[in-house]
Write a structure and sequence with these properties.
Layout: H1 15-29, H2 49-61, H3 67-80, H4 85-91, H5 110-124, H6 143-154, H7 178-188, H8 214-222, H9 233-244, H10 254-263
Helix pairs in contact: 1-10, 2-7, 8-10
Length: 271
C-alpha cells in the first residue's frame, strides 16, 4: 500500500483507514529481511539468553548515529569480549579488562564500558535475567516505575562514574527513553516474525512505550498521532496511547510502521 507523502489522505483522519494503513506497514517492515541493517542484528548473533540481553542492551545504548557504524562498533565490542559477552563478564579477571580501554563510540568511552561490565557482573551474580532489573520490588510494573527504577538500580554500585549517567535515561528526566524502550521492545514483544525476541514474560507487550526517535516523531506528527509540541516522555506516552486504539495488547508493533516510513521511505524529511 502506498501513500502520497506530500498530501497524505490520512492527514487529519483516524480510525480504520489509518489502522489499515499502519497494519500493512507493520507487515512490510516486521520481517527478518530488515534485521541485517538494524542494530537488532547484534543480539541476533547469540542464542544464550544472557548474551542476547547484554548485547541487546549495549546495542540499544549505542544506537545513535549511522546504523552501519553502530553495528560495526558493537561487533568490535563483542570481539573485545572474546565473542562471548556473558562468559567474559562473569569470568573475567582484572588484566582481561585492559583491552577494553580502547573501546569508544562517540561519547561512550572506556570508563562507561568498564562500568557496564561491572554492573552486569554484579547483576548476573544475583539474577538469571536482566528483566529482574526492571521489575519494582513489589512486582507492580509500570513503564514510569520500571524505567526509573532501572536507572537507580543501574547506578547503585559504589563510586559509579557520574559521566556514565548520560547513557541511561529515566522518565523522571522527561526523556523519551528511546533506547531503553527500544531494548524493551526487543526483549518483550512476542510474534513469529523473527525480529523481536519475546524472551521476557513479566513485562507485557501492552505495557511497552513506543521508542520515539527523530524518524518516528516526524512520521507520527505527519499522521496527527502526536499533538504535544515538545518531544519528551509525555509525548512518547501520548503516541503509545494513540497506538493502543489500534491494538491495545501490542501497541508498540506500530514502531515498525512508523520507523520504516521514516527511515526507509523518508517520510517527514521535508517537514
Amino acid at each position: 500500500m502506498s501513500i502520497n507523502t506530500d498530501k497524505s489522505p490520512f492527514m487529519g483522519i483516524g480510525g480504520e483507514a489509518l489502522k489499515t494503513f499502519l497494519d500493512a506497514k507493520v507487515a512490510q517492515y516486521n520481517r527478518p529481511e530488515f534485521i541485517d541493517n538494524d542494530p537488532v542484528i547484534i543480539p541476533h548473533m547469540f542464542s544464550q539468553k544472557q548474551d542476547i540481553e547484554i548485547m541487546g542492551f549495549w546495542a540499544a545504548t549505542l544506537a545513535w548515529g549511522q546504523r552501519v557504524t553502530i553495528i560495526k562498533k558493537c561487533k568490535e565490542l563483542i570481539a573485545l569480549m572474546d565473542g562471548a559477552p556473558y562468559d567474559f563478564i562473569i569470568n573475567h579477571e582484572e588484566p582481561d579488562l585492559k583491552k577494553l580501554l580502547q573501546f569508544k563510540h562517540r561519547t561512550f568511552n572506556d570508563v562507561d564500558t568498564l562500568y557496564f561490565i561491572a554492573f552486569f557482573r554484579q547483576h548476573y551474580e544475583r539474577f538469571e535475567s536482566l528483566e529482574d532489573a526492571f521489575i519494582p520490588e513489589d512486582g507492580d510494573y509500570s513503564p514510569f516505575r520500571g524505567l526509573g527504577g532501572f536507572r537507580s538500580y543501574f547506578f547503585s554500585l559504589p563510586d559509579f562514574p557520574h559521566r556514565t549517567k548520560k547513557h541511561v535515561s529515566s522518565p523522571s528526566q522527561k526523556s523519551t527513553c528511546k533506547r531503553l524502550n527500544m531494548f524493551l521492545r526487543w526483549m518483550v514483544r512476542k510474534d513469529d516474525n523473527g525480529v523481536d525476541f519475546g524472551i521476557w514474560n513479566r513485562i507485557k507487550p501492552a505495557d511497552l512505550i513506543c521508542p520515539l526517535d527523530l524518524h518516528v516523531d516526524r512520521v507520527s506528527r505527519k499522521l496527527n498521532l502526536i499533538s504535544r509540541k515538545q518531544t519528551d516522555w509525555q509525548t512518547a506516552v501520548e503516541l503509545t496511547e494513540r497506538l493502543r486504539e489500534f491494538d491495545p495488547a501490542d501497541p508498540v508493533k506500530y514502531d515498525f510502521a512508523l520507523f520504516g516510513l521514516g527511515i526507509e521511505e523518508r517520510w517527514g524529511v521535508q517537514f
